[in-house]
Amino acid sequence: MGQELQEEKKFQDPPPQMEPLLGVLALVTLLSPGLACPSPCSCSTKKNGRLLAECAYRELRDVPRGLSPNVPELQSLWLGYNHISAVEPGTFAALPHLKNLDLSHNRLAEFPWQDLRNLSALQILKLSNNRLAALPGGALPALAQLQLFHNPFNCSCKLFWLKEWADSTSVVISRAGSTLCAAPARLRGRAVTDMPGSLCVAPSAQLTYQIGRARAPLGLCIPKSQNPPEPAAPGI
């Protein structure tokens, strides 16, 4: 009876020298294409322990499906140098540990900015070399590094917040001098961070009314013309 218990325990508790091998096998299982990585991507663990999904240079037109539920511990996601033109809302919602998101060199004209609120661990966001023309106020989370250069930004009053944010933030904005305005024409080629402060100041104007030949500022009342006095009666 005692011998049987010893043999059963032998199978339950692997020897210490087997533990590293079991850890490697578990990692291989996690990173196997069928369980973790979408087929166009390759996943690996870096020396610092970060899990990376590399999907760059794959001629992708969409973000690979199934990425979030399959790799919840993902920390770096590289999707650069593809043909992605849109990102569906909620695509990155299940990636709470994501620290590095690279979507540079794509065809993005819009982006689900609201999704960034759920990425509390995000530190690096790369959206350079896309087709972004607008950026809603308050869209950017607390980052360490941001890339927005080579996008055709419309430097209207709606984008002026970005200039003010760039002036006050501690975020490193890579190549800020290359983050240029494409419109309006008078600001084309000018850095977004150099947008003039007078851009969104309402012009002052003085309205006047013109009555006959007389001109008076708005609010000044001009009495109506009265009938001329009747001529005095001839003397007696």
UniProtKB/TrEMBL annotation:
Keyword Nucleotide-binding carried by entry: no
SMART domains documented for this protein: LRR_TYP, LRRCT
LRRCT domain sequence ranges: 151-201
GO CC term, one of those recorded: plasma membrane
Alphabetical list of InterPro entries matching this protein: Cys-rich_flank_reg_C, Leu-rich_rpt, Leu-rich_rpt_typical-subtyp, LRR_dom_sf, LRR_TM_domain-containing
Domain of life, source organism: Eukaryota
Keywords of this entry: Leucine-rich repeat, Repeat, Signal
SUPFAM superfamilies associated with the record: L domain-like
Signal peptide bounds: 1-36
Xref: Pfam families: LRR_8
Keyword Iron-sulfur: no
Protein name: LRRCT domain-containing protein
Native species: Ficedula albicollis (Collared flycatcher)
